[in-house]
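Morning - glutathione inputs below, output right after.
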Amino acid sequence: MTYEFWYWNGIPGRGEFVRLALEAGGIPYRECAREQGVETSDLVADMTADRPHPPFAPPYLVAGDMTISQTANILLFLGERHGLAPADLAGRLWVNQIQLTIADMVAEAHDVHHPIASELYYEEQKTEARRRAEHFREHRMPKFLGYFERVLSRPGGWIADGGRWTYADLSLYHLVDGLLYAFPKRMSTLARDYPQVMALHERVSNLPELQAYLTSGRRLPWGDGIFRHYQELDGN
Ligand SMILES: N[C@@H](CCC(=O)N[C@@H](CS)C(=O)NCC(=O)O)C(=O)O
């Protein structure tokens, strides 16, 4: 089956967590919103179409009769169906737990530059963003990264037992990549304390399964999405 994958065109966004799993798993999919002639309004029309389980927001995946949204939920599905996560219940829940923790940090990274409202421009909430950024850099980044470091410090160096990557390892790579882009100064300080996290970032970036994708034009550069670089929000 070729899945239909929907996400806003032009930014990696949350869609990238799903794309990395599809690409590394060699799973056929259509990037619907990027296809020629497809506009934002087409995405909205598809998203709001009458279906039994409608999505609230992209990313979402259409798999035959099923429409699956929520990034972690899509990955839970792909992980189970395509062997991108352990097969046993405890292992599946563990990988989902890490994915949900990644999602928490992603939401907080977004709220650094949009602490008041997503509907407002960054320029309309710069003062609050500065305060939010200080807390994120000082407290939240070490707390989340420290947790991931502890997880990866167990034998094997991957999130789950089994000696290989899962979809959550790919997502953690993407999260770290976003943090390196948005907070280069802070990450250069913190990287020393989280060698396992940085090693995972390096290892995933070198996975043979991902090379064709990472070097293709389909892997979009960072920009004005969830992870944004504003000099005034970064610091050592
Ligand atoms: N918890 C959802 C969040 C989905 C989400 O916030 N999608 C964004 C794009 S990354 C969106 O278009 N949101 C529209 C909205 O929240 O109104 C997930 O992890 O997939």
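Note: The longest helix spans residues 126-152.

O.
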